[in-house]
Amino acid sequence: MDPVAKRKWPRSGLETTLMGFGAAPIGNIFRPISEEDSAALIKAAWDAGVRYFDTAPMYGHGLSEARCGQALRWYPRDQFVLSTKVGRLLKPRKRAEINFTPWVDGLPFDMRFDYSYDGVMRSIEDSLQRMALEHIDIALIHDIDLFTHGDGQPQVFEAAMNGAAKALLKLRDEGVVKAVGVGVNEWQVAHEAIRRSDFDCLLLAGRYTLLEQDALDGFLPLCEERQVSVVLGGGYNSGILATGAVPGAKYNYAPAPEAILERVRKIEQVCRDFSVPLKAASLQFVLGHPAIPTNIPGVRSVAQLEDNLQTFRADIPAEFWAELKRRGLIREDSPTPR
């Protein structure tokens, strides 16, 4: 599988490379990345042929957007696809007064949620100024899920459908952006969003992986039926599908429970039997689904990027996927790469 081969999105006509660049890490999540290393990372991705970049105002309180814009600004704008998100507005504030968690050394902006029509219009304008780019290709309503809002999620979702969604659809119809949708942590929320609004795409973080295929229960079939493109983030389930079942392995940003560790051990055994790297299986599996044109693993260094590119190219025989199904380690109805 060639990570820089392109797939076309049926509704918007956009073309993205199979592997995109998830720009949350260059927003300094958990620990800082220097300006030099951030620039080198994007340059290495470009030089390798990666042509899809995903960022958001949330990432480093604007830092990720600023770094993406600075690094991409002088490349031909028609040669790459860029997505960012709406739903948070940034306001200047003294660093000492800002809670940056989980970001480190972000930009001096405080964040507040705003899923209103006017808030989204303001957000798109702010993002364009931070990045100093001609246009944004994809705009996603960010984090209207239970993971972010808890018990208040139903009210947030309704506000977003009545405000943010209408704004994005207007921007798409006017040609300001080419595709619109939502970026969330739960497939159920994404499922309801495409039932409610005429979205082109979705970004789903961590809910369709080698460990989780419940998204096949209605959601992904509906995406395929309506030709909605799904960008897959969090394909390692926040770590364990990259590291394997090692001590301290992370699953959903927390220590993996024993049941998950045991399941990953079983997957690793099949990987050993077929000489397939676990990371390669994790990266390629999700792209077997026809609704998923691109996978955007986050990377913190050029070495990690190069490892992902190499791992993406690993040859995986059809028998490997068949064995995972035979042992009940992935669902029988899971589409697998050809």
Automatic annotation (TrEMBL):
GO cellular component: a single term: cytosol
- InterPro entries on file: AKR, NAD(P)_OxRdtase_dom_sf, NADP_OxRdtase_dom
What are its E.C. numbers?
A: 1.1.1.107
Q: Which segments of the protein form a coiled coil according to its record?
A: none
Record's keyword terms, sorted = Oxidoreductase
Q: Which GO terms describe its molecular function?
A: pyridoxal 4-dehydrogenase activity
Q: What class of enzyme is it?
A: oxidoreductase
Kindly indicate whether the keyword Oxidoreductase belongs to this entry: yes
Q: Which Pfam families match?
A: Aldo_ket_red (PF00248)
Transmembrane ranges? none
Provide the protein name: Pyridoxal 4-dehydrogenase
The species this protein was found in: Paraburkholderia phytofirmans (strain DSM 17436 / LMG 22146 / PsJN)
Which lineage?
Answer: Bacteria, Pseudomonadati, Pseudomonadota, Betaproteobacteria, Burkholderiales
